[in-house]
Specification:
alpha/beta, TIM Barrel, Jelly Rolls, 6-stranded parallel β-sheet, 6-stranded antiparallel β-sheet, 8 helices
Amino acid sequence: MLEFHGVTGSNSRSELERAVNYWTRSDIRAMVNQYKQYIILNIANEWGGSTLSDADWKNEYKESLTTLRNYSEYRDLLIVIDSNEWAQDPAPVKTYGQEILNHDAARRSAHGGPNAANVAFGIHMYGRWDSSNPSKFHVSNELATFKNTCNFPIIVGEFGYNHNNGNNNLGCTVSHTEVMSACQTRGYGYMAWSTDGNDSANSWLDMMDNWSTWTWWGLQVRDNANGIIATSVKCSLFGGGSSPITIYADALASDWANWSWNSTVDLNNSSPVKNGTKSIKVTANAGWSALSLRKGTAQSTAGKTKITFWVHGGTGSNKSIKVYASTADSGGDTTGKIITATANTWTAITVNLSEIGNPASIKRLHFQNNSSTSQPAVYFDDIKLE
C-alpha cells in the first residue's frame, strides 16, 4: 500500500490537496502506471484530526476522488480513505461511506469504466479502541456493523496492543488478539503497525529490531492463531491462487454486455439486493427466454473451476433456471445445470465448470427460464468466475 504520510492529523483542506497534488505529479503517475497491478493507494494517512467535521471529511475526500479518477493511472486502482480523527472514529464511515462509494462509482463510470466503486475505508485501532471499556469503541461489534449492516469494504490499516497496561504514549489498550480474530471472522484485512523504524516514543510498536530480529510484538502478529502465518494467502500476482473474476457486482464488469432475449432486464435494480446497492432484475416475457451476458473478448477459464452467484426467486412460486455458457456469439453451447430460484429469499448458487462441460472460454453466459411460459421477475447478484 502506497500512502502519503505528511498530513497526519491535519484538518486543513490545503494539506489534503497537497497530498493529492503529489499523486498527480507526472513522475509519480509514471511510477504508479508502471507498478499499478501491485498497488493499493492510500490518499493521505490519517488526514483529519479531532476538530474536522465528518461532513467536511466526506466532502474533501469526494473532491479528492474526483481529481484522482480524472487520471487514467488511477481509474482502476483500489483507493483507501482513512476515517476521520486519526482514522480511529468509525462513525463518519458509517454515516457517509455509501455516499462516497456512490460518488466513486459515478466518477469511474463517467470515464468509461464500470459503474462500481473501488474504494476501501481505513480504520486504525489504538487509544480509542478497547472492547472492555464502554467509553471506547468495541472491536468485534464495530466490525460486525461494518460487515452486516453497512457491508462496506474495510481495512484495519493500523493497530497496536495493550503495551505497559495502557501506560504508553498512545493510551493504547486495544486487544490485538481480538483485532486479528475479528478481522479473520468477518473477512477483513489488517496491517499491524509497524515493521521497524519508529521513533523512541513509538519503538514499542516495532515488530523487528534492525530489520532482522523479531520482537515480542512481531512474533504476536506473525504467530498468533489469527496471525500472518496462519491466515495469509499468497497473492495471485506472485504465484498464489488466482483471484475471482467479477462479472456483475452492482454493475456489469468491463467488456461485459447485456445480450438477453425475450426478457426485460434491469441491471440497476435497487431492491431486493444481496450485496452492495444494485442487483439484476429479469422478467421472463416468454418461455425459454434468458438473461444472457456477453463478453467482448471471450473470458478464459484457465485456473477457474466454478461460476458462483446469488439468485432471488421473487414473488409467487419457485422458478427453474438453466445455467449454461457459449464459447461463441452463436453456437458453441455447453451443457446446462438446472438450479432453483427460491421465492422470497436469496440463495447462493455454485455451478462447477465440470457440470457444464468444462469450457475453455466463455463468450456468453446464460441464465435461461426453464419453462415454456413467461415468468415473474427473478433477481441475480454477485456473479463471479472462480
